[in-house]
Design goal:
By secondary structure, the protein is mainly beta. Helix content is 7%, strand content 44%.
Length: 293
């Protein structure tokens, strides 16, 4: 009789156990070890210095993961994660990284890695270049708005890096540099809502280029771009360099003395603030190179 009871009860006990271990991505192997399996590892974004990942976790109770990163020929690096999305930052440009992900191991669980995926970070590439050769002084206190048309732009990107060049006649000090698209209304030198600070207090030594720190900015080569400069008013610090002439289909430089309007989208004059408009020059000033990534 006891044997008969056992024959009936044992299957009833084993079935729920097997179902429990098999639920939510866990496997019950012949050795009795639990295996938590992640899947569908994908690269969801790549920039010059970051890689974004996403994967599928079938068990919402599991929130501790290990991201393994390797470079060809290098030792693996383990990075902790607590969600099914991960951004790896501060990476090198133009470098291929290989990733795998697993549940963080525990005493009673095997944690196999997912299939590996690879991602190659970007690199800055030229979006605009100009050879500036004509030096000009006495621009202290000027606001210069450099407009560049799509005809002279040849690359889009999500990061921007500017290189500016100084006059051979003396130093140039720029209080503020801003970048933007052109406003949909107003003057041709008015900024759109994406007006973004590039740098402040930039000193450009005479005859030298200065490459500024990159910024996050959605650079669209199909639309005109504005680079706005507030030149420092200190005597002797307004020495610029330019290229001229250029065609109006390629760009123009707008300028006004004794104003600091690089940070102002609706530059004077405007319907609310009448005044003298900016003058125009068929030139490229200060901007030697725009790079994007």
């Amino acid at each position: 009789m006891d044997s008969l009871v056992l024959l009936v009860l044992v299957p009833l006990m084993l079935v729920p156990v097997v179902l429990l271990w098999g639920f939510a991505g866990c496997k019950f192997d012949p050795q009795g070890i639990v295996t938590h399996t992640l899947s569908n590892l994908q690269v969801t974004g790549v920039t010059r210095s970051s890689v974004s990942l996403r994967w599928t976790n079938p068990d919402p109770l599991l929130t501790a993961f290990e991201v393994e990163r390797t470079i060809d020929g290098g030792d693996p690096i383990i990075l902790p994660a607590s969600t099914t999305t991960f951004e790896d930052v501060d990476l090198d440009e133009a470098t291929t990284y290989i990733y795998r992900v697993r549940v963080t191991p525990s005493d009673d669980a095997e944690t196999p890695f997912t299939t590996a995926v690879a991602a190659t970070t970007g690199i800055f590439e030229p979006a605009f270049t100009a050879v500036l050769t004509i030096s000009q002084g006495n621009l202290e206190g000027f606001c210069l708005i450099q407009r560049i048309e799509p005809l002279r732009l040849f690359k889009s990107g999500n990061e921007v890096r500017l290189t500016v060049r100084g006059s051979t006649g003396g130093d140039l000090t720029i209080d503020r540099i801003f970048i933007s698209r052109v406003g949909t209304t107003g003057d041709p030198y008015d900024a759109a809502a994406d007006l973004t600070l590039v740098a402040t207090n930039v000193v450009v030594p005479a005859g030298n280029p200065v490459t500024l720190d990159p910024i996050a900015y959605a650079f669209d080569r199909t639309k005109p771009v504005l680079i706005a400069f507030d030149i420092n008013p200190t005597p002797g610090q307004g020495n610029a360099i330019r290229l001229e002439p250029i065609e109006i289909t390629e760009g123009a430089m707008y300028f006004k003395d004794r104003v600091a309007e690089a940070a102002i989208p609706d530059r004077i004059p405007s319907p609310a603030t009448p005044g003298v408009p900016y003058e125009i020059s068929d030139s490229v000033y200060i901007v030697e190179r725009i790079e994007v990534a």
